[in-house]
Amino acid sequence: MKVALICVNYNSTSDLVRYLKSIRQAEGRVDELSLSIFVADNSTGNFKIDLNSLIDFKVETKNLKIENYENIGYFPAASRIWNDCLVERMNYDYVIVSNVDLELSENFFEDLKAIPSDFSTGVLAPAVISRRGSDLNPKILNRPEKIQLKKNKFIFDKLLLYVLYVGASNLKYKFLGRSKKSSAAREIYAPHGAIVIFTNSYIRCAKSIDYPVFLYGEEIFVAEECRRNNLKVRYEPGLQVSDFDHGATSMQGAGFRATEHAKSIDYLLKTYF
């Protein structure tokens, strides 16, 4: 099994180190795995990393490459790696794109290898377990209506409405969001954007992940690219990932987040709906 893993880092060295160590631990538990790791580093100033800094943290750097960028955003950085570094990407069974505030289960690659090949599946969505113990996948079960996206765009264009919307969502999650992990693999609309597993079918059919928006909306972009190419998104709860939610978005103010949300919806509406 040949896998490329692209992780995007922004000023999160401790998260990156923990994530890479979990990747190496999972890698060591499966035979016949060819794994290439690419770190798209969007970090600034003293937070920028290189191979020597990872060695200092006792991270194995075999088949690991770091590309340092200005802070160009999540999928824009990942797509740079996809386009510039994966020169023979058609030969990969999977290309994984993720944040770094994650931890793979010890059996992650074993479980990935055990999933039967299905040429109609473009993306796999693993179980992404939050600190509260709930599964963040499936992220979106059904395709949203255009009117719903327009309503969200209206909210995100107005900072006060956005702050109220986020507050209400957080309260709902706090009191109602402790959903149990699903035990059934199934087709869904969109995966959680924290980690997206692209299959060889996606690589061959859709070919790119060129989503030109700084943050947000990646899930719908991925879903719509699969839809355009008659590919499925499949939830696979046997694949386990822990999410620590220390990501780049938590470092930004509400005004920035609202603006980027609005930009993402505007792009999605113009491109797919």
CATH superfamily: Spore Coat Polysaccharide Biosynthesis Protein SpsA, Chain A
Low-confidence stretches: none
The structural class is alpha/beta
Major β-sheet profile: 9 strands, mixed
A few lines on this structure:
The chain is of the alpha/beta class. The chain has helices at about 15-25, 50-55, 75-85, 110-115, 145-155, 160-175, 200-205, 220-230, 255-270, and strands spanning about 1-10, 35-40, 65-70, 95-100, 100-105, 120-130, 185-190, 195-200, 230-245.
Which helices and strands appear, and what pairs or packs with what?
Layout: E1 2-9, H1 13-27, E2 34-41, H2 51-56, E3 64-68, H3 74-84, E4 94-98, E5 102-104, H4 108-114, E6 121-129, H5 146-156, H6 159-176, E7 186-188, E8 195-199, H7 200-205, H8 218-228, E9 232-243, H9 254-272
Parallel strand pairs: 1-2, 1-4, 2-3, 6-9
Antiparallel strand pairs: 4-8, 5-9, 6-8, 7-9
Task: Describe the fold and architecture.
Strands 1, 2, 3, 4, 5, 6, 7, 8 and 9 form a 9-stranded mixed sheet that branches. Strand 2, helix 2 and strand 3 form a beta-alpha-beta unit. The protein contains 9 helices and 9 strands. It has a single domain, classed as Spore Coat Polysaccharide Biosynthesis Protein SpsA, Chain A. It is globular and about 50 Å long. The chain is α/β, with parallel strands linked by helices.
